[in-house]
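Action item from last week, closing it out:
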Amino acid sequence: MKICLSALAALGSVLMATTVNATAFYIDQFQITKNGNPWFEDPFNDGFVPPSSENLVSGGTQASYFTKPDPMPGPEQNGKLVLDTAQGEPTTSEVTGTQLLMQRARLATNTSDDSADLGRGLKTDDTFTVTGVYDLIQPDIRQERYGIRLTDFKSDNLDPNDNVQLGVVLTTQGDWMVGFREADFAAGKFNLLDSYNLSNTTDIAIFDQIVLMLSKSNDTSNEITASFELIDLQDTSNNILIDLNGNPAIFDGELWTRADFMAFQVVPVPAALPLFGSALGLMGFVGWRRKIAV
């Protein structure tokens, strides 16, 4: 009995000591151009966190987001929205099944496949560019990421179909990267299309912001391209624009997609978890011995 109580006490102590680490990220703008014209922009300067937005979609419908959590914790301050993955909503990756802490704002644009609604939302016959402007910050923990995405679903609007991401991540190997990737739902993994190692960039410290862009450049093609720009707010002549390789296709079975910005981290497994298993095994063994003794 003493052994069991000691194991339980150790288990409880380690669980109570487990904390969530995270990095605070700052998004300055989230904007979309459509068919060559400005279409949506959220400058995050009204002090109200998503799902509210300061702008209109197509000049008529008040914009809103679907968010995790709802509403997002924020705050909005100094014209930026704070994203802190420690305050993210627990969720499971629809691709890999990995447990995540996520903050996400998905613009609630039109999802009709009716040909009469092709002029609304982000549709297969449009050209568009989705842009997220972030402060250039290296994540503190591995597999923590911030960026932008395009996501659409099958016709039942339940099962995800296409997911293309461009984001800044600290990899499991400790590299500070910009990664362009697409989901492979059948295989339960992401395919990394291209990446850029920010750690190897000369004078990376001079850059203040990073502009992430996902584009559909041809109204007769469903391919998506990715690029990003490193911004020096003091001297824009230092700015660097980089195109990434890879041309994933979306609109596989539907006519629409939705854009979002996000920040998330993989939920860490406590380092002491193997010890928990040992302690529980010891407790089971002691219980078995006591039954034998009786």
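Closing note: DSSP finds two helices and 19 strands in the chain.
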